[in-house]
Amino acid sequence: MVEQPFMDRAPGDETADRRDRLLAALLHGPDAFVLLGCDAGVAELFGGAAPLRLALVTVAGDASADQIRARLEPLVKAVRPGGPPAHFVVVGGGAAAGRAALAKAAPLVQPVRMGFHHLDAAGALTRVKGSALPALDEAYGRLAEVGPLGPDALAEALAKGQALARQERAIVDRLAGSRRVTATLVIACAALLAVSYAFGPGTHDAALWRMGANSGEAVRRGELYRLLASAFLHADPVHLFVNMLALWSLGPMLEALLGPRRFLLLYGASALGGSIASASAGALIEGRWGVGASGAIWGLMTAGIGIALRPQGLLPAAMIAPMRSRAWWPLGLNLAYSLLPGIDLLAHLGGGIVGFALVVTVLPRGLTPVEQRERASSAEPRPRPLLTAAAALMGAAMALSVVVALAAGRPWVLGAPPTLTRTAVADTGVALDVPEALASAAFVEEMDGLRTHMYGRLPDTPMMFLLTVHPFEGELTPGEVDELLERERKALEEQRPADVAASGPATRVTLGGRPAVRARNELKNGVQLVSYVVVLEDREVLLQAFSMKDRPASWNGIEDKVAATIRRQ
User: Fold this and answer.
1) pLDDT score for 295
2) What is the pTM of this model?
């Protein structure tokens, strides 16, 4: 209903006449504004051609700057971040008072782009502050050509605008009605973070690896389950919170718009695309691995951009314009964030490309436009068995990837003290006790013409031992052993690894009743290295123990225990 005060004007009231003509020019101009509300001297309009809100405020010709500002401030404060641009036009009042009021009403930090304009009592239109509004200038130029709206025409325009607002609210309600898949994904990610922390202190990174962290090296070895399992893992609570906040912001709308099955396909395919892109680079960088749902979330973000650019009839035109205006700034912000150290840019881009490609091509085909849906769950006009099968397959693949990762990695064994087993070192004539978890992952490599025997593989296992045996022509005397160990001690002091970050002194120690040399170093990638030199009668044994910085506490000191067991076979 239109309140009469907005239309009332005394004979010869030029301000009211200009206001009514300006309103008519805006409603019937090329930009086709829509009238959303009109009462007590304030008309609220929404741009039909471009997303923006406009408030037309009428004041008395002799209104002071404080009075004008008091009328404006509640309207300015009502603007919320993330909405379309907002413009405020004061009609009436003196030029000086209006400009002063508008300048003071403009906030220093604006939640959206704003413009403040004054059509003063003398009939001059001025942009006082903020963005220009060409549609307002065009309407002002036609004031002499249009007549003011009568009560019936104003009521008709208001009814049309309110009907459009009701339609938009109904569409928004339908787009907020489906969250089952989104909620399930959030719960799964939160539960797996709790599981990764459940294996005791100092084991989180090792647990993430065993639970399916993505790695190009591991994927190349055939551990394909990591491509999907890694999308449910997170490095810490902050990482989880940021990703789940983004998922909860994007997921429900897309789930309702596309339907649960297509949304599940979008999420899973985006996660897979991000992991493949990350693993492709990881295969070239030794030790590189990652976790997180950000590839999938980037797919959701770019899917929203794809819908805004190519809606394919899913949403009415009135909703598309605001979506397009808001679509790009999250992409720019997240792209800048992705360039920070430690952030997996390739995973983001891979997931984003897949999500965008799916939404602008095949994913929306056959969906019922939102305004034609009888209820929130009726996205599909008819049953689609193939779609159901594809969604079920994707859901099963994601769940199975997590199960296989847990079964293969067995993270629950991390906190248990390692059990040592006697192990013969091939044909070297040397044996030592090695943790069972490492003895089962033994292999041999030729390095610098020497055969190096390896037990374990970082980060698959908490530690890795490398053993090299140098035979002598004959058995050394105690004096020769002492001289050899002193030379080796100096060599370990002077010839540190190239990527060492911190080091301690190389010292003479006694291990298992035998004299030996020990040196500790920390490498730049956080790996701890302890090197030992032990002499066994007619051969020298070099043992290097590499360990993850966050290895289980029960593995502390295992290097000395293993080194003390080196004996002739």
Assistant:
1) 94
2) 0.65
Q: Does CATH place domain 420-568 in 3.40.1000.10?
A: yes
- Which CATH fold topology does 179-411 show? Rhomboid-like fold (1.20.1540)
CA distance 427 to 419: 24
What Å distances lie between residue 399 and 9, 81, 247, 405, 533, CA to CA? 69, 38, 18, 10, 47
Q: Which residue intervals of the chain bear CATH 3.40.1000.10?
A: 420-568
Instruction: Using alpha carbons, list the distances in angstroms from residue 368 to 165, 181, 374, 376, 387.
Output: 21, 20, 10, 11, 15
Task: Tell me which DSSP letter residue 310 carries.
Answer: -
**312, exposed or middle or buried, with CB in 10 Å at 0-12, 13-18, 19+?**
middle
Query: Which one-letter DSSP state was computed for residue 150?
Result: P
pLDDT at 449: 72
pLDDT reading at 187 higher than 80: yes
User: Alpha-carbon distance 26 to 32, whole Å?
Assistant: 7
**How confident is the model over 189-237, as pLDDT tens digits?**
999 999 998 876 567 787 888 899 998 888 988 999 999 999 999 988 9
- Portions of the chain given CATH number 1.20.1540.10: 179-411
